[in-house]
Design a protein that fits this description.
The structure holds two protein chains of two kinds.
Chain A (H helix, E strand, L loop, with lengths): L1 E5 L7 H14 L4 E5 L7 H4 L9 H5 L11 E2 L5 E4 L2 H6 L5 H13 L4 E5 L6 H9 L2 E6 L3 H22 L3 H10 L11 H11 L1 H13 L3 E7 L2 H17 L5 E7 L2 H8 L4 H4 L4 H20 L1
Parallel strand pairs in A: 1-5, 1-6, 2-4, 2-5, 6-7, 7-8
Antiparallel strand pairs in A: 3-4
Helix pairs in contact in A: 1-14, 5-6, 6-7, 7-8, 7-10, 8-9, 9-10
Chain B lengths: L12 H5 L7 H14 L13 H18 L2 H11 L41 H10 L4 H8 L3 H9 L8 H15 L3 H17 L1
Helix pairs in contact in B: 2-3, 5-7, 8-9
Chain lengths: 299, 201
C-alpha cells in the first residue's frame, strides 16, 4: 500500500508523523519504505537520526543504478528503509503522467508492504497527482485557521483534479477549471453546483464525477491539539467536507501537543523510540495501528 | 442525483444531521450539538470553505431538521410524507428519488423554543426544555445519574440558593448533561457562569 502525507501547511508535522508512524508500523512487523518527496525541504532523514544520504532517487532516474531498491537506505529500525530525492521527480518540469505512474509502479515493486510518502506542503500538480494515485492520501492539519485554510485549498485542488481526470468531454474539463475560481461567471459556488452544471452538458460525465466523489476518501490527522475542543475540530472538518464536497473524509486520529516532540526532533531521535510513553507517541501509535489494520484488510 | 451530492436544501433532515433514520432523540440531540458547533460563526472547521450565505442556509436547515426530528408527531408526519413504505414498513435508508425541499413549508403545530441561529446557553430552563423535547422523564434522569429528584428540579428551576455545594453541583451538572447527550464540560461551565452572574445581581 502507498500512503501519501500532504496538504496543510509547512510546520504542521507531516515529516514528524511520517517518520514516527513508519517506525510504529515497522515495529508491528510491516515492511515499510519511507519516501521523502518534500519539495519545500526534504529532511525526513533528520527525523530518523540519519545523516544526509549519499544515494537518492536521482541516481535511479539518471540510471546510475539499475533498480530502485539499490537507492534504499537502511535504518536502525528493522523493517524500515528510507528513499530520498523523490522531490526531484516532483520538481521536474517534464514529469509527465507516464513517468509518475512508472514511479508509482516502481514503488509498488519494492520489497516492502507499505510506503509512506512525505509530500510536504506543496500544492503543485505533481504533488496532487501523487496524492491521488496513492492508495490513501493523508492530510496533516493543526487546529489553526492558516493550516485549515491551506488544507481546504489542497483538498479542493485534489478534488477538482480528480474530477477532471474522470471526464472525457473537453468542455466539461474547461468548466471544472473555471469552477475552481469562486468568482466564475457561471455562478458555480461548490461541487454540487458544478455537477448540476455538468449534467446539463454531459449526463455521462456528471455520473462519472459522482462516482469519483463516492470513491474519494482522503484521511485527516489533527496535529498539535491542546484541548478536547481541538479534537472535535477534526469531526467538524469531516462534517464540513461532507456538506461541501459530498465526500467522506476519514478522521484517522489526532496527536496532542507535547513538548517531548520538540525535544526529540532536537535530539534527532524519533519520539516513538526516544519516549514511547509520551502522550504524543501514544497518539502516533494509535494512528499507526489503524493503518496497520487497513494494511491487513488490504492483504 | 447521488445522496451525497445533494445541496443542503435537497437533503433529508436525517442527512442534514448525519443521523440514521432510526436515530433516538439522544442521538439527534448529540448530532444537533455537533452540527451547531461545526457551523457556528467562529468555527475553524468552516473557515474559508463556505460563503456566509451558504453557512446561513445550512444553519437554518439544521435548526429546522432538529425542530422536526425532535418532535415525535412532526417526525412521524415527515417520515410518512418523505419515505415510501414497502409492505407497510419504512425503508432503512431514504429513497434516492425523494427530496425534501418541497416539504419544508409544511406548517405543523410545534410549540417549543424558537430556534435562533445562535445556540441558547445551558441554563436550567434550557436543560429542562431539551429533556422534555427528548421525551425523558425526570425520574429516568435520576435513575441514570443518581441525582435526587429534588436536586434535579432545583437545577432546572434555577433555584440557586437551594442547590448543593459547588463541588457536588459540578458533578451533577456533568452527569445530567451526559444523560441528555450534551457536552458535559460546556453545560457545567455555562450553568455555573450563569449562576454566579445571577448571584452578583
Amino acid at each position: 500500500m502507498i500512503w501519501t502525507i500532504g496538504g496543510g501547511k509547512g510546520g504542521s508535522g507531516k515529516s514528524f508523523i511520517t517518520a514516527n508512524v513508519g517506525i510504529c508500523l515497522a515495529k508491528l512487523g510491516i515492511r515499510v519504505v519511507l519516501i521523502d518527496a518534500d519539495l519545500g525541504g526534504a529532511n525526513l532523514h533528520t527525523f530518523l537520526g540519519i545523516s544526509p544520504p549519499g544515494l537518492s532517487l536521482s541516481d535511479f532516474i539518471k540510471k546510475r543504478v539499475s533498480h530502485l531498491r539499490e537507492v534504499l537506505i537502511p535504518t536502525a529500525v528493522p523493517n524500515l528503509q528510507l528513499l530520498t530525492g523523490a522531490e526531484d521527480l516532483l520538481n521536474a518540469v517534464d514529469a509527465k503522467s507516464v513517468q509518475k505512474q512508472k514511479m508509482v509502479r516502481s514503488i509498488r515493486s519494492l520489497n516492502g508492504d507499505t510506503a509512506l510518502v512525505d509530500l510536504g506542503a506543496g500544492n503543485s500538480l505533481s504533488v496532487l497527482d501523487f496524492f491521488l494515485m496513492s492508495d490513501g492520501g493523508i492530510l496533516v492539519v493543526t487546529p489553526e485557521p492558516t493550516s485549515i485554510e491551506n488544507s481546504y485549498r489542497f483538498l479542493k485542488s485534489a478534488f477538482y483534479r480528480r474530477l477532471k481526470q474522470s471526464v472525457s468531454s473537453s468542455s466539461v474539463k474547461a468548466l471544472i477549471d473555471d469552477a475552481m475560481d469562486r468568482k466564475n461567471e457561471m455562478g458555480i459556488q461548490n461541487p454540487h453546483d458544478l455537477i448540476r452544471a455538468v449534467s446539463r452538458i454531459d449526463e455521462g460525465d456528471a455520473q462519472r464525477m459522482i462516482e469519483e466523489v463516492e470513491t474519494f476518501h482522503p484521511n485527516l490527522i489533527l496535529n498539535q491539539v491542546r484541548s478536547k475542543k481541538d479534537i472535535e475540530i477534526g469531526f467538524s472538518i469531516r462534517s464540513a467536507s461532507l456538506k461541501y464536497f459530498g465526500m467522506h473524509l476519514h478522521y484517522l486520529g489526532y496527536v496532542v501537543y507535547d513538548q517531548e516532540v520538540n525535544q526529540s526532533v532536537r535530539r534527532r531521535r524519533p519520539l516513538v523510540l526516544e519516549n514511547p510513553r509520551s502522550r504524543a507517541a501514544q497518539c502516533v501509535m494509535e494512528i499507526a495501528s489503524k493503518l496497520a489494520k487497513s494494511h491487513k484488510m488490504a492483504v | 442525483m447521488d445522496r451525497r451530492m445533494k445541496g443542503i436544501k435537497e437533503q433529508t433532515y436525517y442527512e442534514v444531521l448525519e443521523v440514521s433514520r432510526t436515530a433516538t432523540a439522544k442521538e439527534i440531540q448529540r448530532a444537533y450539538e455537533h452540527a451547531k458547533e461545526t457551523f457556528h460563526a467562529d468555527s475553524l472547521a468552516i473557515y474559508s470553505l463556505f460563503s456566509e450565505k451558504e453557512v446561513k442556509e445550512i444553519r437554518e436547515t439544521i435548526d429546522e431538521a432538529y425542530r422536526i426530528l425532535m418532535d415525535e408527531a412532526l417526525r412521524r408526519s415527515y417520515d410518512q410524507s418523505h419515505f415510501q413504505r414497502v409492505d407497510g414498513r419504512p425503508p432503512e435508508e431514504p429513497s434516492e428519488a425523494q427530496e425534501v425541499s418541497g416539504e419544508k413549508s409544511v406548517s405543523l403545530s410545534f410549540t417549543g423554543l424558537s430556534f435562533s441561529a445562535e445556540r441558547e446557553l445551558y441554563r436550567g430552563k434550557a436543560l429542562k426544555r431539551v429533556r422534555e423535547r427528548m421525551g425523558v422523564e425526570p425520574q429516568a434522569i435520576c435513575k441514570e445519574t443518581k441525582i435526587s429528584i429534588r436536586t434535579l428540579e432545583w437545577i432546572e428551576e434555577e433555584a440557586f440558593d437551594k442547590l448543593p455545594p459547588l463541588v457536588y453541583l459540578k458533578g451533577f451538572l456533568k452527569s445530567y448533561a451526559r444523560s441528555l447527550g450534551l457536552d458535559p464540560q460546556k453545560v457545567m461551565e455555562e450553568y455555573i457562569d450563569f449562576m454566579e452572574e445571577s448571584r452578583k445581581k
